[in-house]
Specification:
Layout lengths: L1 H29 L4 E8 L10 E10 L4 E6 L5 E4 L4 E4 L2 H19 L5 E6 L3 H7 L3 E3 L5 E3 L9 E3 L5 E3 L1 H9 L6 H22 L1 H14 L1 E2 L3 H5 L10 E6 L2 E8 L4 E8 L1 H12 L1
Parallel strand pairs: 1-6, 3-12
Antiparallel strand pairs: 1-2, 2-3, 4-5, 6-11, 7-10, 8-9, 13-14
Helix pairs in contact: 3-4, 4-5
Amino acid sequence: MKVMKRIGKILIVFLLLVACVYGIYKVRVSTSGNLNVLIVGVDAREGESVSRSDSLLLAHVNKDHKIVDLISIPRDSYVYIPAVEREDKINHAHAYAGIEGTIETVELLFDIKIDKYVEVDFTKMISLVDTLDGIDLTPTATFCEQDENDQADSYCFTEGVKEHMDGKNALAYARHRKSDSDFARAGRQQEVIKAMVSTVKSAGVPKMFNFYQDVTKISDTDFGLWDITGYADMAFHEFSLNQSVAEGVGGLFYEPYAGQESWLFYIDETWLEQTKEMLQE
């Protein structure tokens, strides 16, 4: 009888603990609003003390509407960089003032607050994809690309032919731009991210937690587990992932600071204003 009473008390305590944890989780979810996350891929080279951002993606999470808008910002976008108080290519912001300078530049460009960031050497995406045991992708173009050791034409892809890619394949697919453009590459990077999100989402909670740990190991981020908890409910429901690349005009333009023509991209003002409105929702 005494043993049964002890078991009963332990069970009650356990149930109360579960209820408490669940209550905290629900409160955290209900108090989490929209979120702006800046994903920065850097082209860090061995021996260099500074690096430019090779890719910039802004993820806007609209929690109420279960929508994630993934926006790629071309690295040659000619914008105002607060750190140097003049216009320059947006990827130079990282070389001038690191992740803080990049965040400040994007905040000014879109008139928003960046809530969280993830900064990663894009080559380390190999281990992330491999952690997921690969991802399924259907290439949107036919081309060959060098491998992670710069060996030419190591990986080839055929438009419309679905394949299961490991980390090295996915990196080669995401980094290619020679046969088309930086805009097409931005689209491929988004395809890879979307495939990774889909794989993580369908893998279950343990895999999600492991993936989070892997991300924090290979990247510089201010995302904490408590932060992610507030958006965990989206992982268990259907949500839309919209992909887009900044619109504008690119070409050779005279760049005053450099004193010569440079390849620059001018973001379309109409697109920029519409995007600002969307980000305020």
